[in-house]
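Run log // design_07
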């Protein structure tokens, strides 16, 4: 446990030092540290949660927001890393410790003058490092299957292969394999009981790639649905700088500044919320099935409005 903690702090120090020099490529950081890209991604999430403004320049490339440096905060990389690490455990300790940490973080990040940056972080379910979570961690490390009791679900009483504990859209999930190697997304707060088994499983080799490409908890292991979208000129700059969809690719840009973007998904629900969020600046071009899905949602919403 102590070694894991020291390793995490060391990684945070290294990553912050690299950010202070300029843009970083995750694959290079992972290689230098001798860890997976996914581990570096988790470390960056810790830094973001601690209030450090990090921008996603392109796929796999990150940097501090322009003009932001540790020097302006009068912090060294070591001090900043310790601040971030405290943040990663403050939520699980809860109560006064969590409040004290937030007050301390705000004072430090404001430095000696008003901080010109404001980072809006999503609020959601607090991580609880309880007996259930610890059992899941051990099962993942030892590749042991678990028998689960899950709130109002037919999987209760069955064995699952635990893969990852993941955070999506404000909630903590256990990602696991069920029957026929179907990927299950189980809310941690809905797990009623877990029992250890001696049955083992193999971690899918493609798991990190699947997670890296995911846009929401609705992801699937197969991305067999190709979608083409048209982005208005007013919103184009956002989609040129950030990937909102899995396997997002700009296929052409018109003279009036509109973008045509393609992406791939296994389930329309993975990208539908993003499309709805960007209306009317986004239009589905193909396939017809997805266009019909959008029409269905909008029609249902219209009916609810008319009834209210």
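design_07 sequence
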């Amino acid at each position: 446990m102590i070694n894991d903690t020291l390793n995490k702090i060391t990684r945070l120090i290294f990553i912050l030092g690299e950010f202070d020099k300029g843009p970083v490529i995750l694959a290079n950081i992972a290689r230098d540290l001798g860890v997976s890209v996914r581990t570096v991604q988790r470390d960056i999430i810790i830094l973001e949660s601690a209030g450090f403004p990090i921008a996603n320049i392109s796929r796999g490339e990150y940097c501090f927001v322009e003009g932001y440096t540790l020097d302006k905060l009068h912090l060294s990389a070591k001090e900043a890393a310790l601040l971030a690490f405290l943040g990663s455990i403050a939520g699980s300790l809860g109560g006064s410790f969590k409040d004290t940490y937030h007050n301390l973080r705000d004072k430090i990040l404001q430095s000696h003058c008003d901080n010109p940056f404001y980072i809006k972080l999503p609020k959601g379910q607090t991580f609880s490092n309880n007996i259930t979570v610890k059992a899941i961690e051990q099962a993942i490390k030892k590749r042991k299957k678990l028998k689960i009791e899950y709130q109002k679900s037919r999987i209760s009483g069955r064995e699952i292969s635990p893969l990852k504990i993941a955070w999506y859209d404000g909630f903590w999930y256990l990602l696991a394999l069920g029957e026929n190697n179907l990927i299950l997304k189980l809310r941690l707060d809905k797990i009623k009981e877990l029992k250890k088994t001696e049955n083992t499983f193999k971690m899918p080799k493609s798991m990190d790639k699947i997670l890296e490409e995911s846009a929401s908890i609705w992801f699937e292991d197969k991305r067999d649905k190709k979608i083409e979208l048209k982005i208005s000129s007013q919103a184009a700059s956002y989609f040129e700088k950030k990937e909102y969809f899995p396997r997002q690719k700009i296929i052409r840009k018109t003279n009036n500044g509109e973008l045509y973007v393609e992406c791939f998904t296994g389930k329309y629900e993975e990208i539908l919320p993003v499309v709805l969020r960007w209306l009317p600046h986004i239009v589905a071009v193909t396939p017809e099935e997805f266009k019909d899905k959008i029409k269905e949602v909008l029609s249902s919403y219209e009916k609810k409005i008319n009834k209210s």
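DSSP finds ten helices and twelve strands in the chain.
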